[in-house]
């Protein structure tokens, strides 16, 4: 099946379709995309009873078909192998077994609403094993018993025979690794062991954006993401983070010590239980501290040795980023790409307040920029002025830096939302960076 783009999996309940497809998606992130079972997704989303609400379910299925058809075409047009769990032929077979004449009559009008798969893969187990596994998984709302399963299978076999489908049957009552090996072979998938060179990863990623725009969440996601998956999907090798905020925070605390000694504060003032900067020369100073931290790594003859560096900072004002880039070293500029995490000022302020834990307001991990400082330092920034396109390049002292602006609203903590959001930004950025 190596030439196919759209393959549908079928099988008795609890045969392992979802688990098999999820594992394939994780193992082949550059080749495979999975669409969940449409009927089950509708039942869960709409709160329908699979067996009692058949008329409403039919209407919901018909309403969902255009979106599912578009999703299949989008994935195949991008060159992915689209693996779909179950299909309407299975639902028709169940409808006949359940006496659901409404869907049976509607089926002829909707059969061709979805793209025709190139092939079908049936994971096959004995009927009693399906019943036993259903009882063990504890989801009675979806349980189907042996008499109805027998009728469903007979109907499904006739459906395939009448349409002369390309059906591959794989015995699934075996050890999981044997089943998976046969599935991979049927789909023409061959796993390539992970290479430790991380050649398709960024050297330096400048992570920019307003305070509380989502930069810390980005780093947290990447730290939690498995190394090989992160390198494959997001082009970030094992990485070091260079962030100027801890340097700034240390200066605030140094000011506290000077103040306790009866001396004047050097860089900051106290403001609403936190700090505000009084010496604007701190901004170029912080960039030079970044240069100082990164330089030994980039100038080492051994190079990054399969690592990436994420450089994180925020700048505001009419020339904030222009001024910051002017201070960056040649070593950084020659190897960097830029990810700007974009939120509005008001959204930045809302998140800034939300993350501020009053009970631990002295801690760096719960830092909050005071409103006065936010408006003064970050009320405006010059990013969209110097980088007007979503994807492009910036010229800094003759160095071309690819950039991407990633909208990060609405806020989400859900990795299932963040993963695709980050991947959609980083994939074209990496292509631009590696081509450059």
What do you see in this structure?
The chain starts with 5 loop residues before the first strand and ends with a helix. Residues about 360-365 have low confidence and may be disordered. It has about 425 residues and is an alpha/beta fold. It folds into two domains: about 5-185, P-loop containing nucleotide triphosphate hydrolases (Rossmann fold), CATH 3.40.50; about 205-435, Rossmann fold, CATH 3.40.50.300. The chain is built from 18 helices and 13 strands. The strands form three sheets. It has a six-stranded mixed β-sheet with strand order 7-10-6-11-13-12, sandwiched between helices. Strands 2-3-1-4-5 form a five-stranded parallel β-sheet, with helices on both faces. Strands 8-9 form a two-stranded antiparallel sheet. The chain is elongated.
The radius of gyration computed from the alpha-carbon positions, rounded to a whole number of angstroms, is 28 Å
- How many helices? 18
Look at the helices and sheets and give the structural class.
Answer: alpha/beta
- In percent, how much strand structure appears in the residues? 15-25%
